[in-house]
Design brief:
By secondary structure, this protein is of the alpha+beta class. The protein is 24% helix and 29% strand. Helix 6 packs across helix 7 (417-432), helix 6 (360-378) crosses helix 9 (448-466) and helix 7 (417-432) packs across helix 9 (448-466). The model is unreliable at 1-18 (pLDDT under 50). The structure holds zinc ion (ZN). Zinc ion binds at residues 429, 433, 452, 455.
Length: 534
């Protein structure tokens, strides 16, 4: 689904002209009102019309991927090969394509690793770990970059690498309406949790688990605002990607369970008959059903008979990214969700190591269902066929159809009500990011508030509907008073990597509180909700 972020009109129309506050400053009359019109707002044009919708000449690029990748659990490495079909819908001829190589944030030459070498020898270990994680042989290792011509002939492409971005030159520029095909082979070592990158591995009680994200060379966005968006990935500004279709084959050890963006194409090859039968039961169940129960983890009967690795194939239509998780340690539960009887069933899945029980089995999938309900009503109904929540080392991160969430009971299996709420909230938040920004495709590398703020706003209502009176952190205005009284706060339109402190207060809490006030105190819910859904 393609759309623009066009919420600002609600702010612009909410205040009467009588609130204007004209002052004379050095002879010039200046409007100092907080409610003055935003003069620098761009005029409507062919790309964005006056009603806030895409204009008559609006375009977006389309980038499709076919990827084959193998997870090597001895070396903790992923080796992949991809074919990118880049369709140029812009009015411009393109003689090169920029790609994002986010794993390069962990390259030994990256900023974070260079800092490590420059630190004094005698600083405390905790400070060192904070300032610069241990050196790690991370980053994309590029083995092949080729352009494929219309007859299928392949030729090596000239490319340059600069930190987390790569420019691939095309001998034949892509004209408007035409496509180019690029093939890339690469590999990388999966970092441990807690580093800069967004994918990670972790050794849990039953073995290693892997969360793989920002893991393949992805085309940068070419749009009418930025041209090529080539900002470096520094960790804080997340991503901005083109929509496309994905066909991804993931080869992993036979004892692994895999979940990913997209619909599993070959269940008969990678699941047992019992598991396929349980999935069918899950789709009509109103509570989670175990597909792999805790006492089945790593048992031979839980995997198809045979030897050697298995390849799981997933296909996703019209998404901006692809993430996956793989481990022999996963418990798996699932249930179906429908907006109304007779609708297509949306698959809700949770996978987690046994360390996450009890808690994940009782909370995770239900919290996904709550997100479907609240966000579906307040924004738009979830358009994708499935949503997955994965427990592992990444505390909270979002990808199309896939969320990575933390919150784990202690080794004794005990957890507090606060920890349970942490899981409920982070699940709603990360699954909620499917709406903002995965579908309403804002530029996260530049603008944190557009996805985090609007998502935190909806999260507040999902939490209140989960349990009336839920102690929501973000949304209520009283929770942001201390921040709003400070001189150090920065405007919402501060680029993501330039927000030095209070990232959460600025990017998440302030816009969420503002939207709640606009809805509940200024416009009223019926008028606000009508505008917000539009
Ligand atoms: Zn977020």
């Amino acid at each position: 689904m393609r759309s623009l972020v066009v919420l600002s009109f609600a702010f612009l129309t909410a205040f009467p002209l009588s609130a204007q506050n004209w002052v004379k400053n050095q002879g010039a009359k200046t409007n100092q009102s907080s409610f003055r019109a935003i003069e620098e707002w761009p005029d409507p044009n062919d790309m964005r019309n006056a009603a806030g919708s895409p204009g008559s000449k609006y375009w977006q690029q389309q980038v499709d991927y076919v990827i084959r990748a193998t997870l090597d659990t001895a070396r903790h490495a992923v080796t992949g090969s991809e074919r990118i079909t880049y369709r140029n819908n812009s009015p411009d001829r393109l003689s090169y394509i920029w790609l994002q190589l986010d794993q390069n944030i962990d390259d030994p030459q990256s900023r974070a690793n260079l800092i490590a070498g420059a630190l004094p020898q005698n600083i405390p270990a905790q400070a060192r770990a904070f300032l610069a994680p241990e050196p790690f042989d991370g980053g994309h290792k590029i083995a092949r970059v080729q352009v494929v011509d219309g007859k299928g002939a392949k030729a090596n492409a000239r490319y340059i690498l600069n930190g987390t971005v790569m420019k691939v030159h095309l001998d034949q520029p892509i004209a408007t309406g035409q496509s180019a095909i690029i093939e890339i082979d690469w590999s990388f070592n999966v970092p441990e949790g807690g580093r800069n990158g967004r994918g990670a591995k972790e050794l849990v009680r039953d073995g290693w688990m892997y969360e793989l994200a920002q893991w393949f060379p992805r085309a940068a966005v070419y749009d009418d605002i930025n041209g090529w968006q080539t900002d470096q990935f520094l960790g804080q500004g997340e991503f901005y990607l083109e929509f496309g279709n994905y066909d991804v084959s993931l080869t992993v050890p036979r004892n692994h369970i895999v979940q990913a963006t997209g619909v599993l194409q070959n269940p008969a090859e990678v699941l047992t008959a019992t598991q396929r039968q349980r999935l069918e039961q899950a789709w009509s169940s109103d509570k989670p059903v175990f597909i792999v129960a805790a006492n089945e983890v790593m048992t031979p009967a839980s995997r198809p008979a045979g030897n050697g690795p298995l390849t799981w194939r997933f296909v996703a239509q019209n998404v901006r990214d692809f993430a996956w998780a793989s481990s022999k340690t996963f418990v798996w539960d699932a249930m179906g969700f429908q907006y109304r009887p007779g609708d297509k069933v949306i698959e809700l899945h949770s996978i987690y190591p046994r360390d996450a029980m009890p808690l994940w089995d009782s909370v995770s999938t239900r919290a996904i269902a709550q997100t479907m309900k609240t966000y579906g009503r307040m924004a738009f109904e979830y358009p994708y066929p499935k949503a997955v929540n994965v427990h592992g080392p990444v505390f909270g991160m979002e990808y199309p159809m896939v969320a990575f969430c933390g919150a784990r009971p202690g080794p004794d299996g005990k957890y507090t009500a606060g920890l349970a709420r942490a899981l409920i909230s982070v699940t709603i938040h990360e699954v909620g990011h499917n709406w903002f920004p995965m579908i309403v495709a804002s530029d996260e590398r530049k603008w944190t508030w557009m996805d985090e703020g609007i998502n935190s706003f909806l999260q507040y209502y999902a939490e209140q509907e989960w349990q009336p009176g839920y102690p929501s952190n973000r949304g209520p205005a009283k929770n942001i008073v201390n921040y709003m009284k400070q001189d150090r706060q920065v405007p919402l339109m501060t680029e993501s990597d330039a927000i030095q402190t209070q990232f959460g207060n600025n990017g998440y809490s302030k816009p969420a509180a503002g939207l709640v006030m606009l809805r509940e105190q200024v416009l009223g819910d019926s008028l606000f909700d009508e505008a917000f859904r539009e």
